[in-house]
Specification:
It is a peripheral membrane protein. The chain is α/β, with parallel strands linked by helices. The protein has helices spanning about 1-35, 45-55, 75-90, 115-125, 135-140, 145-160, 185-200, 220-225, 240-250, 260-265, 275-295; strands at about 60, 105-110, 130-135, 165-170, 210-215, 230-235, 295-305, 310-320, 330. Bound molecules: adenosine-5'-triphosphate and magnesium ion.
């Protein structure tokens, strides 16, 4: 009798255990049917797919990048095109029916440091209803044979599941340079997968925008280049844009530059990129700190207290020249932390621009 009871219990236990995998399998096969009818249907491909997709979850940008359209200077044409491709279709879906289809591939190209990646950050912030995927070759290239192209495929599949997605591939030339005889086979397979996923039979990419950025567009494979329907040249900034960049990068740091000074700076930096200008300004912003460090004399001034700017105090110290009538000989070690009046950034700081580069 005991044996029989035990046998019954074991039977029940086995039944219970069996049920779970059967259920999960059934669910998965259903979803698989929905997602792809051409995919491999053997059961153990599914956990693999999940594993790949969970790997790719990392490329989804969720946090706010804090860059807005207004932070990007002098690239109005590019911003308009991106709005047309991303924001308007989300806002007025009825406008983009019939033959009027939004752009599916946009390539940003131009010299280094002109704001291509920065513009993509602005897209990620502004198009907050869309899911933003930022993929680079490290996310897509795997050491396992055949996994790289599966990662590409899964990236696109993941993007198709969302309502609206933007896939941003920075430095796309590293993944999609032109096909040649002496390249490795795996590199070639990634390219082929890209070609098929971006525009192939059985792939519906209505809700996907692929955004690429490169500074060497001529090395891109011609077939990949064709899939970027809109190609936008991101040029070096114009004079006015450069002046605006100087202003923007200075921000609300105390400075005594006038409009004229900004114009002068812009005139003397022709051929400089946005990144160069941000470095010049950062260097200039450091100068007051160096001034404090090297000063041998300080004088007392009145100004807002560093602790609470709404309170005006009159015992602040600021660096001055030894010839100043109110100069007190001391160094920065003797100044209290909350008694220092920050010297403002002056035009002199920018005069040796050429020495930076
Ligand atoms: N048009 C611009 N407006 C505001 N800031 C800019 C602009 N262009 C460049 N910058 C500044 O320069 C920095 C570098 O720009 P970014 O990384 O976008 O260059 P890039 O074009 O992607 O260069 P690369 O081709 O080398 O990747 C930005 O973080 C930003 O501070
Ligand atoms: Mg970049």
């Amino acid at each position: 009798m005991q044996y029989l009871e035990r046998a019954e219990k074991l039977k029940e236990y086995l039944k219970k255990n069996k049920k779970k995998p059967v259920k999960a399998g059934a669910d998965n096969s259903k979803s698989e049917d929905k997602k792809s009818d051409s995919g491999d249907s053997d059961t153990d491909s599914d956990p693999e797919k999940k594993k790949l997709q969970s790997k790719l979850e990392g490329v989804i940008i969720n946090e706010n990048t804090n860059v807005r359209w207004s932070d990007v200077i002098g690239l109005d044409g590019a911003i308009e095109a991106l709005k047309e491709a991303v924001i308007l279709p989300m806002h007025f879906p009825h406008l983009f029916t019939g033959r009027r289809i939004p752009w599916k591939g946009i390539l940003l190209f131009g010299p280094p440091g002109t704001g291509k990646s920065y513009l993509a950050k602005a897209v990620a912030t502004e198009a907050n209803q869309a899911t933003f995927f930022s993929a680079s070759s490290s996310d897509l290239v795997s050491k396992w044979l055949g996994e790289s192209e599966k990662l590409v495929k899964n990236l696109f599949e993941l993007a198709r599941q969302k309502e609206r997605s933007i896939i941003f591939i920075d430095e796309i030339d590293s993944l999609c340079s032109s096909r040649s005889d002496n390249e490795s086979e795996s590199a070639r397979r990634i390219k082929t997968e890209f070609l098929v996923q971006m525009q192939g039979v059985g792939n519906h990419n209505e809700n996907i925008l692929v955004l690429g950025a490169t500074n060497i567009p001529w090395v891109l494979d011609s077939a990949i280049r064709r899939r970027f329907e809109k190609r936008i040249y991101i040029p070096l900034p114009e004079k006015q844009a450069r002046a605006a960049m100087f202003k923007l990068h200075l921000g609300n740091t105390s400075h005594c530059l006038t409009e004229e000074d900004f114009k002068k700076l812009a005139a003397s930096t022709s051929g400089y990129s946005g990144a160069d200008i941000s470095i010049i300004v950062r260097d200039a912003l450091m100068q007051p700190i160096r001034q404090v460090q090297t000063a041998t004399h300080f004088k007392r001034v009145t100004g807002p207290s560093p602790k609470d700017p709404s309170v005006i105090v009159d015992d602040l110290l600021t660096p001055c020249s030894p010839g100043d009538p109110a100069a007190i000989e001391m160094n920065w070690m003797e100044v209290d932390g909350d008694k220092l009046f920050e010297p403002s950034v002056t035009m002199v700081r920018f005069t040796d621009i050429s020495s930076i580069f």
